[in-house]
Description:
Elements: E1 2-6, H1 12-22, H2 31-39, E2 43-49, E3 52-61, E4 66-74, H3 83-95, E5 100-102, H4 112-115
Parallel strand pairs: 4-5
Antiparallel strand pairs: 1-2, 2-3, 3-4
Amino acid sequence: MIEFKFNEPIPIADVIELYRDAGLPRPIDDAERMEQMYAGSNLVVSAWKNGQLVGIARSIADGEWSCYLADLAVRHDLQRSGVGRRLVELTREAAGDGSMVLLLSVPDAMEYYPKIGMAKVENGFIFNRKY
């Protein structure tokens, strides 16, 4: 059984292990940077199985208008089990009906998001990271 939690304190080593297992390209070799990413996030939905972190949706949200779903990661052996879908649903519920939920997808997941009801957007712009 999977248990879902909101804003549960999570050791960054567990987050890094999850991201590594899930194949999510983040700065997992820089624990300090990962800590800062989580310190700046105000909506984190996590999934747990037998006390082990198995999924996470990390967001930055204002509670009324915008929610940026920055990371969605699910352990490799639980992908395609509905855990990711549930993490996104809970994020959307927490963000509220008056808020949009936006994410930037890694190339390998571009086909996943329409399957869970998300619309592709074409009206965005970006300044890319310098490192």
